[in-house]
Description:
The structure holds 2 protein chains of 2 kinds. Chain A is of the alpha+beta class.
Amino acid sequence: MDIPYTVKPRPDTGLYNAKVGIWLFLASEVMLFGAFFSSYILLRVGAPDGFWPDVATAWPHGLLNIPIGTFNTAVLIISSVTVLLAWASLKEGNLPKFKKFMAATILCALGFLAIKSYEYNEKFTHYVIRLKDGTAVTGHLDIDGKSPRFWNLATVEAKKLESIKVHVDVPNQFRYPVGFKHESHAEAEAKAGGHGAGEHAAREIKTADIALLQAFIPKTGTFFAIYFTMTFLHGLHVLGGAIVMAYIAFVGDGMWKTDPERYTNRVEVAGLFWHIVDLVWIFLFPVVYLL
Amino acid sequence: MSDHPHTGAAEAHDHGHDHAGHNKIYFVIGAALLVGTIVTVLARYWEFNSVALTIAVALFIASIKAFLVAGYFMHLLSEKKMIYLVLATTAAFLVGMVGLILWSDADLPRGSTQKIHYVP
């Protein structure tokens, strides 16, 4: 049995059926991400200023790597153009050119995921440490030259480490509630032995002095929870899109010979999905990285 | 595609020059999106002295970029009525959902406060 209206427009809608189908799906995607953005707004406006000492609820600023995020945004935008060029190549009847542009699109998708994974790892190895005297620092642990992931105070205690070496961020990137006792930029620099801003200064911290030690993972606070949830969900869409496009271009390309118009429509539908992935990132990037 | 809604791929071969024109538009929009991204990042460093204004500027630029993607990349500027109907319904529900959530956040009983203020 033939599936109706895969190429010919249905008389009442004026569209081939897959196009109506993908738009209905995209509409549900808008609602899905809309719900997450609403959650983001609620968490954000309900958060106290700064980051300390309520690590769990307060909102950190300037924590994510903006140059990397900007680069990743550019990668997605370029992939949105290449997927259109791929579709346009099919319209010209040029299958090899189509495949080249699809390969470029899939490479961009994989590049985006690789960069995102690097960013995730940066967070998993980044720590907040609050000392019992009230001061607080952020930085990376240095345990015998290695930078461990997912540690907390219990991990340090279980390993019976009397002290840990920390490459402290200078200056500390967080805003503080007014009046909170924190290490000033000058103090941090002095302790760091005159290291300049942006450099990581090694500092030995006694385990007994630590009140809280936590890697930047979802449970660390509401910011991290919503950041990881939204970017991971978006990342799953990137992965899903890449798999579908790879299948269409390099496994299911036999259809180009048997039914070229239907094949072209498949590419258009996949492209529409790809653009919504770009569209979501257009809002996600400023919201989590910049604001 | 949307410019040739009743034609298939084979028929569209006759309009090769049109597609060259389309490709040019895609490059121009792509470049505009890249510029928009850079402006959004730079805007973060301008001193607006107002959180609301900073957020408004970032979201305004994001909305322009979203319009370019939806309008030109997804061909929404020249789509069929059916698609507009689907999207209008979605927009209504989205506005309803986000609006009700924000309303619930702003409309608190008198004397209560939702914000947690840390007192050192």
